[in-house]
Write a structure and sequence with these properties.
169 residues; binds zinc ion; 5 helices; globular
Length: 169
């Protein structure tokens, strides 16, 4: 089952990733057959949104939620996706419960739903944050071999796809 919010968020990704992300999402929706569906909780985050997030726990109240300043996250270039599972815990047809459980096999096919999603992203050559030393299990990215600093330089030089804020890669 697919999630309308996710379909909208895929449209906010970098133009080079939109078709691929749609295919990935269609495969995910086919793979998860049980009580859990997958939502892309974040795709693109603007520089302004990233700056607000970075301020949390520093110059704004609350806990620190990111170490990335504006322009220092692949989300700022539309090249990253964060996921969450939404679970129909009470079997009423609405998927009301967010889950970050990476082990649970909600659809009883012998594979954890989270790992099914990881496998699909990896098939398309995306990196998974769960493989990193500072693990970020909801996070996936496709960088086209560009470092954050290279992307930031392109952005600062206004090397953008016309009529968009996406860097031309
Ligand atoms: Zn992320």
């Amino acid at each position: 089952m697919s999630d309308a919010i996710t379909i909208e968020r895929i449209k906010q990704l970098h133009p080079k990733l939109r078709d691929e992300a749609s295919k990935i999402y269609a495969e995910i929706c086919e793979a998860l057959k049980g009580k859990a569906i997958c939502r892309f909780s974040y795709t693109t985050r603007t520089f302004a949104e990233q700056a607000l997030l970075f301020a949390k726990g520093r110059t704004a109240p609350g806990p620190v939620v990111t170490n990335a300043r504006a322009g220092k996250s692949y989300h700022n270039y539309g090249l990253a996706v964060d996921i969450v599972l939404l679970v129909d815990t009470d079997n009423n047809g609405s998927h009301e419960t967010a889950s970050w459980n990476t082990e649970k096999d909600f659809d009883g096919d012998g594979k954890s739903d989270w790992q099914e999603v990881v496998a699909i992203f990896k098939q398309y050559g995306w990196e998974w944050g769960g493989d990193w030393k500072f693990s970020d299990k909801p996070h996936f990215q496709k960088t086209f071999g560009k470092s954050i600093n290279q992307l930031l330089e392109l952005y600062n030089q206004k090397k953008l796809i016309p009529q968009t804020n996406f860097v031309n890669i």
